[in-house]
Amino acid sequence: xxxxxxxxxxxxxxxxxxxxxxxxxxxxxxxxxxxxxxxxxxxxxxxxxxxxxxxxxxxxxxxxxxxxxxxxxxxxxxxxxxxxxxxxxxxxxxxxxxxxxxxxxxxxxxxxxxxxxxxxxxxxxxxxxxxxxxxxxxxxxxxxxxxxxxxxxxxxxxxxxxxxxxxxxxxxxxxxxxxxxxxxxxxxxxxxxxxxxxxxxxxxxxxxxxxxxxxxxxxxxxxxxxxxxxxxxxxxxxxxxxxxxxxxxxxxxxxxxxxxxxxxxxxxxxxxxxxxxxxxxxxxxxxxxxxxxxxxxxxxxxxxxxxxxxxxxxxxxxxxxxxxxxxxxxxxxxxxxxxxxxxxxxxxxxxxxxxxxxxxxxxxxxxxx
Length: 369
Known about the structure:
The protein has 13 helices and 13 strands. The protein is of the alpha/beta class. The strands form three sheets. The chain has an eight-stranded parallel beta barrel with strand order 1-2-3-5-8-9-10-13, surrounded by five helices. Strands 6-7 form a two-stranded antiparallel ribbon. Strands 11-12 form a two-stranded parallel sheet.
């Protein structure tokens, strides 16, 4: 199956921002050579939760450090961008990378990010829908235009255009059922970042898949699973890593997204989070944080292989993207985490379900420029 490596630039108490970047870029230089099929990063702003303001800029750098690995965003938050610039930057990266881009998009959740961009969160769902349609249409036609309620754009050509169709290689993160319906209507695949019980994820993914077939007359792209991964041959050490770093990561997510703030449940399009806050109030913040942490995969190499294959088959996923440095891990811990995975997990996953992939094959004759 397809196995990718995610780069999550999370600050830690004992590391400066620049040290975080230096350490992650060490991993980037080795990612393709060590066998990873794709390179990914997310977008966040204004806190040390994840310090990546421009995924396309990072992936353009990654394109020059690799030859075959796909280059994915997990995700670009469309309401924070001018759609023209997104379309141009994605098409440019697709050109210089010879068609290796996988476009992941979302509508955003962090109040601090919307506030500092001076944007109304209550408009995010509509902006996402209008922006996404205009961008996707432009990547097919080579020109962007729109006449929506919030986004109006006179026709403008993209030069260079994308190298090939983005149908089948565009994904979206969708948490609420309403967002999943929008994603299906846009023809996008699902990017699944663990935030719910797996029984709920299975049920909602099947509902999305059924709707996708009805709307598009074909099967959706196989989902992409994103996971914060901890692995060690010593079961006790693997358990300790999960207990410490997955919990710290989950606590940082709760803080960044401000899940305990009643503000979210009163914002149009974010009604789902009213129930989330009630769960936190009912069970307590530590229990909720532990719940989020326990959704991630951790264990010995054998356990990681078993967990990954089980989840991929249950969801009919195309593959998994692993993040190995999170929750304030010291560099030597994340380095060992990667080494163990590369040596004892990755080769075995590549031999399992070889038909699984995250999107259509790259055209053999893709030109440059």
